[in-house]
Amino acid sequence: MTRTIVVHSHRGGTGKSSVLANLALLLAAAGRRVGVVDTDLQSPTLDLLFGVAPGAGSLADYLLGRCEIEAAARRTSVPGLYVVPARTGTAALRELMATGYDVGLLPEGFERLAHSHALDVLLLDTHAGLNNESVTAMGSADVVLIMTRADRIDLSGVEETIALAGRLACRRALVLSMAPEGVDHEAVRRRAEEVYGTPLAGILPYVPEMAALYGERIFAEAFPDHPLVGEFRTILTALDARDEVSRA
Length: 248
Ligand SMILES: Nc1ncnc2c1ncn2[C@@H]1O[C@H](COP(=O)(O)OP(=O)(O)OP(=O)(O)O)[C@@H](O)[C@H]1O
Ligand SMILES: [Mg+2]
Prior knowledge:
By secondary structure, this protein is α/β, with parallel strands linked by helices. The chain has one domain (about 5-245): P-loop containing nucleotide triphosphate hydrolases (Rossmann fold), CATH 3.40.50.300. Helix content is about 45%, strand content about 15%. Strands 3-4-2-5-1-6-7-8 form an 8-stranded mixed sheet, sandwiched between helices. The two termini are about 20 Å apart. Bound molecules: adenosine-5'-triphosphate and magnesium ion. Magnesium ion binds near residues 16 and 125. InterPro entries: AAA_dom, P-loop_NTPase, ParA/MinD_ATPase. GO terms for molecular function: ATP binding; ATP hydrolysis activity.
């Protein structure tokens, strides 16, 4: 049975794609079969992060009926890790914006991919905020990993996303991202759980080495012994503890 995890945030730049790429790498390194789909059609990232070669075969091509989802899943240099890039180039996006597409193709594609590649875990990256792709991805999820910075505007969106995920009957896990130095982790954890009724799956500090990587490499590969990688593992453990991820 494939476990589907959606990584989402209300505002952009919280570290969704970076965290997703690291979780995917760690899961694959632990022997799990992992699929990653970049549903961020507006600003794709995972093709660059995973070094996917340009060319036909992307989520956009699938949504336009130009290829099967299986054909859009690219092998990566990591055994057992497959990536479906959002799009390659802008032509397909222009077309999708002009003609629209059947959103039902998204859950159908996720399911087919999970089945055809015998995935243990399917990770879905999203564009920030609420749009067709992110809401549909949440509708297919077992867990929504909600990333937020310690910022009033980010946090106001958390409430909205938690409510939506609850209506979609998927479990929720919160991650505080880019936490400034000196943050009292225990106090933050207690407060988050009290305010949102949703456990904090992890607190990720702001790490300059991560920002300086320039998206050239995935952090866990470049700095396998860094404490931040330990925090990624903590998130994975929290996601594995199925009953504890959310009180929904
Ligand atoms: N913990 C961290 N510390 C420092 N920099 C980070 C951290 N996490 C991510 N970054 C950096 O922040 C930038 C934005 O990260 P990323 O693209 O993963 O965010 P995102 O939420 O996916 O953005 P978008 O909403 O545009 O899709 C990247 O340059 C990344 O390297
Ligand atoms: Mg992103």
